[in-house]
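Suppose you are handed a protein chain with no further information: no name, no annotation, nothing but its sequence. What can you learn? This example shows the usual starting point.
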Amino acid sequence: MLRRLVILLILVCPWAFAAPKSYIIDTDNTAIRLSWHAFGGILSWATFSGITGAVTLNPDNDVDDHIHVTIPVATLVASNKLLTWQLKSDMFFESERYPTIEFISSRVVDVGSGRFRVFGTLTVRNIARPVILEATVKDPHAQAITLDATTAISRAAYGMDKFALVVDDRIAIAIAIQAHGVPSS
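A reasonable first move is to predict its three-dimensional structure. Written in structure tokens, the prediction is:
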């Protein structure tokens, strides 16, 4: 009897369950920072801006959760002008041939306390590789959210293996996304 009542409530009252909440990335307040060690331990860095994309979160069903981010390589700025030029050149990102980097999530798993594990595909230079982001979301039910995430990749996995003797292969990535809710229709 109780089971029938629950089924009836589910069928009659779909409004009682949370729907996915969609957000658009705030390009002006979102940044991505890369960092790595070179020449035996010197920390180097580069940042990207102009990031666009969308985030969808459903607190009741993580199958509905999606993150899609597009990063314009032309916005890359490194710790000095020479490094900026090198990173944009065919030595690394080849920004003229491959103008964007893209991340598309395949699954977002809530691990509790505002922390998420984000599984997805990162495409750099038309080479797609799986990545896992460790993320925190501040107030995932709010009209605007802050999503901070970290991961690390192998630059050689994306065909960027120049200067392997003096530049570490491991690239740490820190992502700071601000996103605003899309009005419900």
